[in-house]
Each structure stands twice: as C-alpha cells, then as structure tokens.
Amino acid sequence: MNLSISLIAQAIAAWMLVSTILIWFVARAKTNAPVMHAFSGFFLAIIPPLSLIYLLVLLLKKDEKEESFS
C-alpha cells in the first residue's frame, strides 16, 4: 500500500487543527493563559503522540479558575 506524502501532510494538518482547538478549549478552563497553551499545543501537534500527552496533562490538571472557599 502506497501512501503519498500529500496524504500524510493533509492528515497531519487536520490533526494539528483538531488538536489545537481541543487544547485551546481545555486550556481556557484549566489555565490563566490559554493562548500560550494553544500555541505550544499547535507545535506539539506535529508529532501526534506528544499532543495527546499534552492534552491529557491539561485534562488532568486542576482548574485554576474555580474559586476556593477556604
């Protein structure tokens, strides 16, 4: 089975778009700097396992925007 370079590039570009949007939505709720996290997620999306790990770390992070009543 032959895979062309253009097909691989299109798949990576689509993954970069989807993962960056997901990381931005998660970072908006979990951090104070969602744009910075979206940019770093965009560059990590070039290698899909790295962006999945980054997204997992953001998902497991505690919310910083929720108020503490202590």
Number of strands: 0
- Percent of residues in helical segments? over 70%
| Largest sheet features | none
Low-pLDDT segments, ≥5 res: none
**How many domains would you count in the coordinates?**
1
List the total number of helices. Answer: 3
The termini sit apart by: 60 Å
| Structural class designation | mainly alpha
User: Radius of gyration over alpha carbons?
Assistant: 15 Å
Mean pLDDT: 89
What is the overall silhouette? elongated
Q: Beta-strand percentage?
A: under 5%
SSE sequence, one letter per element: HHH
Question: What would you note in describing this structure?
Answer:
- By secondary structure, the chain is mostly helical.
- The protein has one domain (7-60).
- It is built from 3 helices and no strands.
- It has helices spanning 5-30, 34-44, 48-60.
- The model has no long low-confidence stretch (mean pLDDT 89).
